[in-house]
Amino acid sequence: MSDLTRRKFLRTAAATGAAATALPACSSVNVATRRQSPVAIASANGVEAVRIAVERMQAGMRPVDAAVAGVEVVENDPKDSSVGLGGLPNEDGIVTLDACVMDGPSGLGGAVAHLENIKNPAQVALKVMRRTDHVLLVGAGALEFARAHGFKEEDLLTEESRRAWLRWREKRSSIDDWLSPEENGEHGTEWFEEFKDKTGTIHLGAVDANGQIGSCTTTSGLAFKIAGRVGDSPLLGCGNYCDNDVGTGGSTGRGEACILSNGGAFIVQQMALGKSPTDACLETVRRVVRMTKVKRLLDDKGRPNFQVKFYATNKQGQYGAAAMYPGKFAVCDADGPRREDLAALYEQR
Length: 349
Ligand code: GLY
Hints:
The protein is of the alpha+beta class. The chain has a single domain, classed as Glutamine Phosphoribosylpyrophosphate, subunit 1, domain 1 (4-Layer Sandwich). It contains 9 helices and 13 strands. The chain has helices spanning 3-15, 47-58, 63-75, 121-131, 139-148, 159-171, 255-261, 263-272, 277-291, and strands spanning 39-43, 97-103, 108-115, 136-138, 202-207, 213-219, 240-243, 247-253, 308-314, 319-323, 328-333, 336-341, 343-344. The strands form 2 sheets. The chain has an 8-stranded mixed β-sheet with strand order 4-3-2-6-5-1-11-12. A 5-stranded mixed β-sheet has the order 7-8-9-10-13. It starts with a helix and ends in a 5-residue tail after the last strand. Residues 1-34 have low confidence and may be disordered. The structure holds glycine (GLY).
């Protein structure tokens, strides 16, 4: 870190009311050293998304718009069952999407929750940010708003996600009137198990060559969730947050844990206090562990029995990610798009 960057960080920390005595410890891993390159970090399903985001920032696009352009490829991908088209539906077989965006330079954000029939909720969230005086629109109102802005409605349920839902629905109970093939004496499959309790999502944090910041999170939420359930992804401060003086923080995985820990905002706060992105994410995972007390959420070793992943970038272009259990994340900087291992609090599940 150059002296210039060091002085700039100290001014930033003081301006944000942070403890200016602490320098950000350079992360031992995942330090982007070439500040002339924009940086984008995302969940592991976002390798193409971070490539696009960096390409757009190199062409001068604002980071929040580059983030939304990046996640669009995942929202449009029918094979990603955690986001947009092909996202797994709720318990009634209806796909509902959540997303939010945040723009560092303006300090503004926009979000939609429980949005049906529009495959690019992050783009609708951008419109909420830019074309309303509100931050969050939900349900039928969000859909009306999207229609007003010319978004086209379509059926987001693919053949594969419909079959996964039907399998789950038929197997849910033996005391209702839905019959699975097995209950009818036929051969069934267990392939839907891979979708059970599935959380996916894409978060993307973006920092351009001038240290301007933007971020975005988009999801279809928890598979087969109770109708009306909304996770962390559309909630600013939870599944996504950014502060143009500090950096970005975002989450994928069990949304309930991220909501209860205010994950996104907590990451940014930790970086403002001097932690590296990786350490800020790890501290957030520890916070989730501290806050997880009920038995049904703990394994036989007393550890949380779910996965949650956190991602961060700072204004200096450093990045990092951490999770409860091992996993990967996507990043793109001057070295190009790739997946890297995130820091895991527990080495084995
Ligand atoms: N993290 C996405 C969700 O729980 O909805």
